[in-house]
Every structure is written in structure tokens, then in C-alpha cells.
Amino acid sequence: MNIHEYQGKAVLKSFGAPVPRGFPAFTTEEAIDAAAKLGGSVWAVKSQIHAGGRGKGKFKETTAGEKGGVRIAFKPEDVGLFASQMLGNTLVTLQTGAAGRVVKRIYIEEGVKIAKEFYLSALVDREQGRVAFVASEAGGMNIEEVAHDTPEKITTVGIDSLTGPTRADCEKIASAFGVSGAIAGQVLELIPKLYDAFTKSDMSLLEINPLIVTEDNKILCGDAKVSFDSNAAFRHKEWADLRDIGEEDEREIEASKYDLSYIALDGEIGCLVNGAGLAMATMDIIKLFGAEPANFLDVGGGADKAKVEAAFKIILADPKVKGILVNIFGGIARCDVIAEGVIAAVKAVGLEVPLVVRLEGTNVNEGKAIIRNSGLNVIAADDLEDAARKIVAAVKG
User: What region holds the ATP-grasp domain (predicted)?
Assistant: First the structure.
């Protein structure tokens, strides 16, 4: 679950991390009022969407101006102007895709005199089985280029969950920034606070880009990209107030109602699979044979008929889908139950695209018989390679 920058900063502030003052705004009038409450003579006007690269993004509408989704205003009237240009218009960044995202809220933040910008993030390092901090002295909007061109400028520090961040860990991060003295001291104070925010809030990602050093040598979190681990939602009732459904794909919202793991992609072959690893392998082999997956969809090990029917309907709701591959390995989930769900879904919504079904595992013969006797135009497959070849061939005509 993703949240907006201003919400992420509020979370960090609650754990004692330093952030610039700011107020969210949903209208031009609220933006002007926010600037007045902040005072000063410089304000940052920031589009709030669930995507990075806002500063370099471009609006589709010509009325939105040419300065991207993050702008600096030096007059109160410019705050109002930028707000009116951003709100209700579509911002396109490298992370949104060509469709972009409609800006429905903005963040007005006090101006900060920046001396240096660093990159800092915390994530779950699955290879080490611990939280890790990633730090670089090369902060700002081009961290992807830094990772590609000069990976030696990026330092990763794994944190022992039994001790939390040690002084040595924090010193490694300060060294990665190339700072010393009072600024290094602030880094040593900041890292434990961010670690607490990450672990106690059940985050899966925290990205601060940039982490700012001001001209008066103060550390500030200049941005906050926060993703929560949705598996922990049961113990975070407050997340309901942070969720912005308008930023989520309608199909992903529908999938969450049935506890389905669904992520929309840009390809043409819909995938219905049980198990995240098998789903990834299915997507990979589709690409291997020259096509693109339209989604990641894991119905889970305990999928029942209702879940499968819901999953099928969600896939078919994507107008880009030109074919569907069902790839089921029945362990806990029985192949006959999956087959019944597929048949029910096809009968409920109709089927105008090719469908390839590969079943293996518990009650596989019963499942294949259900598919075979359904009277539907379904292409059977013997294994994953056979299934991928058949669906790609069918989609490509």
C-alpha cells in the first residue's frame, strides 16, 4: 500500500525525523491559505501522486504549464497559479506510463535553502533476511542513473534485527554521504528514528530522495516515499485513513476484496496462476516466447471457485487482454475446483479471446475432464512451456 509524500512525512515526523513544514491542499484557495500559514517568501508546490519523477514529469494539458509536477514559487500569487495549473490535470512521469495520473491534491511546503542533496532509503533485503539502508552522496532525481553508471557511489548497510542500527552502521551511512562533524552527528541520530519508523509502521519501502543538508547545516527529509506491507494491515487500522483509492487501479481494488494478489501490467496475455513464484515464472516464459504479460495474478494456494471466478472477471476487464493463460499447480488448491471456477467465469462473462489451460497436481484428471467436457473452446496444455507457446501463438494469430 502506497501513501502520498505529505502522509509519509507525517509518519516520519511522528518518530522524530526532521521534515520541512507543509500543508496538503485540494483546491487553489487551500494552497494560497497554506502559503500564508507557512509564511516566508519561498514555497514548494508539489503534485501528490503515487509515482516518482514528479519534478521531471510533464502535464498532458497545455494549460498546466511546462515546469513539471514540482515547482518553486516566490510570490503567493504564483502558489495559486501553480496550484490551478496542477489540480485536475494529468501528470506523466517515467513511473506513471503514458497514461499519467490526474493530480487531485498538492502539497505546499516551506522553501528550504539547500546546500547538498543525498539519497537514502530503507528496504527489506530478502537475501540477507533483514532491513537494509541504501545511501549515496549522489542524491536528487537521477538516482537510477547513478545506480547504472556509478554503482560504487551507492552503499548498502544491513541492520541486525536483534540490535537495530549500531553506531558503526550509522557511521557507514554518514561516510557514504561524505559528511563529518555536526552533520554526521545528525545522521547518527536520524538513522535509528527512520529504522523505528520502518519497522514499527510495517513499511516495505522508505525512500528519501533527497535527504537535504540546508545552508545552515541542518538535515531534513526533503521527500518521503512510503510503501506499507499490506500483510500487516490487520494491526494498522489507521491505514484506512491514509489510503487513496483514486490512485489505485480499479481492478487491483476489486482484487483486494477477494484477497487476490493482482498487479496490472501493459501486455496482452492475461495470467491466472496460483503461487507467486509460479506466477513470476509464467510471466517470464511468456516474454521468452515473444509476448508480454498483461498482469501478475496469484489466486493463492487455497483458491476456491468464487476466487477463481473473480480473478477471471478481473483479467477480462482489461481491454488490452488478447488471450489468457491459466497455469495451476494443484497442491492445497485442487485442479477440479480451479477448473469449475474457470468454467463458471467464462459462462458468466463470455469469452472472446483464446484461453489456454495447464493443470497439474491434486485432482488433475478430474480438472482436465471438467475443462474437456465444458463445451468451451479451451486449448489444453501439457506443461508450462507448451502452454506458453500455445497462448503466444494464439494471440499472434
Answer: 9-241
Q: How far apart (Å, rounded) are the C-alpha atoms in residues 209 and 113?
A: 16
Whether residue 119 lies in the annotated active site: yes
**241 a known binding residue?**
no
Is the full-model pTM beyond 0.85? no
For the record, the C-alpha cell of 226 comes out as 512510503
Q: Catalytic residue, from 6, 119, 195, 262: name it.
A: 119
Contact between 43 and 108 (Cβ < 8 Å):
yes
Q: Say whether 332 counts as a known binding-site residue.
A: yes
On the question of pLDDT at 148 being above 80, the answer is no
Rounded to whole angstroms, the Cα distance separating 286 from 61 reads 36
What domains can be seen in the chain, in order of their start residue? 21-110 (3.30.1490.20), 114-235 (3.30.470.20), 249-395 (3.40.50.261)
Active site residue 262: no
The rounded distance, in Å, linking the Cα atoms of 133 and 154 is: 10
pLDDT digits (tens, 9 = 90+) for 284-324: 999 999 999 999 988 876 666 778 888 888 998 888 999 99
